[in-house]
Design a protein that fits this description.
Blueprint: E1 9-14, H1 21-39, E2 44-46, H2 55-67, E3 72-77, H3 83-93, E4 97-102, H4 117-131, E5 142-143, H5 145-166, E6 168-174, H6 188-193, E7 196-201, H7 202-211, H8 218-229, H9 239-256, E8 262-266, H10 272-277, H11 282-290, E9 295-296, H12 301-314, E10 318-325, H13 329-336, E11 347-352, E12 365-368, E13 382-388, E14 392-401, E15 407-416, E16 426-431, H14 435-444, E17 451-455, H15 460-469, E18 477-479
Parallel strand pairs: 1-2, 1-3, 3-4, 4-5, 6-7, 6-8, 8-9, 13-16, 15-18
Antiparallel strand pairs: 10-11, 10-17, 11-16, 12-13, 14-15, 14-17, 15-16
Helix pairs in contact: 1-5, 2-3, 3-4, 5-12, 5-15, 8-9, 9-11
């Protein structure tokens, strides 16, 4: 996916000058060897310039990792470490930073072979706080060469998301539709995250679309759509307009991304869109999202922001769904009870009109938008991609600004069940442990809107670390707490 950074982590070992430098040298070599043996060359650069003991050496190491094109940094305490030089390195680097430390290797060499990095991490943490520098700390940041190699690998998806956000522009076409105030969140926190925002009128988009009429590239895009849809191509008459719209968006993104490397879109989709464009944009949204360019509907800026984080972490297609409806009791009894270990309150249906990429649907077909067609002519509501979402592990999450510009987030892991929802749109039956309590005390209590981003796989750990790195406090990150662990505000007598 060209719209997602491929991150290289620069590994810099540090040493306190009153400890043997050889400890850091040899332990760095062992770490690199362990990483390459397990993961290959991808994602890691070993800084060979020096072991950082001083401020001068810090500058040399910083220049080296920058020359090597490293967008993220791993600071490795091979021994106690120089708390000033190592934390200055993190401060001046200007990108995601991991701190980790070497464990002692053997009880046979605890005189000159003892590095005390366990102790040095405490001083490093204190000095980082003094400098106001956020870093990524593994769950247990002291380990063997093999364990530290695993820490770097776990850091990579976190670093991808942070690098992506720092170079992201969200392009919106609005204003937000009536009765979707929940999508209307303040944009000030975007700038604090380093994200650029460009807000446009839907009239600007309509003008650009009209200029793409008879674009010579339309037949090629239309043929791609026909091949993707296959037997599901039930509205062939609309494909030329959808191809025209896709080209409009892609050309707009290329012309407007400016100084940013990566882009995402928050688009308008109703009520005037259908009557003026003559279709709904769901299928095009799904195609771009499937290629790593998230396009949210209802001008949901924080929805597309969340989708982009998910795409960076998973390096896969994502989607944005309404946390939509409960599972009827008869459907539960007939298709779920006794077959899956979930209570009815663990379940809900995730749905949207037709914006989920085709590769994340068990089967798909081009349809009209049934909800919109209740108040509009059917022929202007065509363009949705309907199908059941593929069963398997998922992560449900969202990063959101409150009305008073405070960032909050939630993350929960679960699965899509291999059970038919017997409904329309892009839809699936989601199972999340203790969803009922999470819905009440995580989502409703913290005033999250109806859209949730979905990544296909279990990425809760990385998501939580990203939100923490971005400055959210633990109390501002909701998750589905297990039975017996109360939420703040949960009635103890319930």
């Amino acid at each position: 996916m060209k719209n997602i950074p491929q991150v290289k982590v620069g590994l810099v070992a540090v040493s306190r000058d009153c400890f043997p430098e050889s400890l850091s040298v040899n332990r760095r070599k062992a770490l690199v060897e362990a990483y390459r043996k397990r993961y290959g060359e991808e994602g890691l650069y070993e800084c060979p310039v020096c072991i950082v003991e001083s401020e001068q050496q810090m500058q040399e190491a910083l220049a080296d990792v920058k020359r090597a094109g490293c967008q993220a940094l791993a600071v490795y305490l091979g021994n106690f470490g120089p708390e000033i030089a190592e934390t200055m390195l993190a401060q001046k680097f200007g990108g995601p930073v991991l701190f980790m430390a070497a464990a002692e290797e053997t009880g046979q060499d605890l005189i000159d072979g003892r590095g005390d990095a366990y102790c040095g991490m405490l001083n490093a943490s204190y000095n980082l706080k003094l400098r106001g520098v956020p870093v990524y700390l593994p769950e247990y940041p002291v380990g063997t060469a093999e364990e530290c190699a695993g820490m770097i690998r776990e850091f990579l998806p976190v670093a991808r998301a942070l690098v992506g956000l720092a170079n992201l522009k969200i392009i919106s076409f609005g204003p937000r539709p009536l009765n979707f105030l929940a999508c209307n969140a303040p944009i000030a926190p975007l700038y604090q995250l380093g994200v650029e925002i460009e807000e446009n009128s839907e009239l600007d988009l309509l003008e650009a679309f009209q200029k793409h009429q008879d674009d010579p590239r339309i037949p090629e895009i239309q043929a791609q759509m026909q091949e993707e849809l296959g037997a599901g191509n039930r509205r062939p008459e609309i494909l030329a307009k959808l191809a025209q719209y896709e080209l409009t968006l892609l050309d707009w993104l290329e012309a407007h991304k400016g100084s940013r490397e990566y882009v995402a879109v928050a688009g308008k989709c109703w009520p005037a869109f259908q009557t003026q464009f003559g279709f709904v944009p769901c299928y095009v949204n799904s195609r771009l999202t499937g290629r790593g360019i998230p396009v949210s509907c209802e001008v949901d800026i924080y929805g597309t922001l969340s989708e982009y984080i998910g795409a960076c972490v998973s390096q896969d297609a994502v989607t944005l769904l309404d946390i939509n409806n409960s599972v009827p009791a008869d459907l539960y009894r007939e298709q779920i009870q006794g077959k899956f270990d979930y209570a009815p309150t663990d379940l809900f249906m995730g749905f949207h009109c037709g914006n989920t990429p085709s590769q994340k649907l068990s089967a798909c077909s081009m349809e009209f938008q049934r909800i919109m067609a209740r108040t509009l002519p059917v022929e202007v509501t065509q363009g949705t991609l309907e199908g059941e979402i593929v069963p398997g592990a998922v992560t449900l999450f969202r990063l959101q600004s409150t009305a008073d510009t405070q960032l909050k987030a939630y993350v929960a892991q679960g699965e899509v069940l291999p059970v038919s929802p017997h409904s329309f749109g892009s839809i699936g039956i989601f199972a999340v442990r203790e969803m009922g309590r999470f819905y009440r005390y995580g989502l409703l209590e913290n005033h999250f809107p109806h859209h949730g981003a979905v990544a296909f796989g279990q990425y809760g750990k990385a998501m939580y670390e990203i939100f923490r790195y971005l400055g959210l406090k633990p109390e501002d990150i909701s998750y589905n707490r297990p039975r017996g662990e109360r939420y703040p505000g949960e009635n103890p007598f319930a």
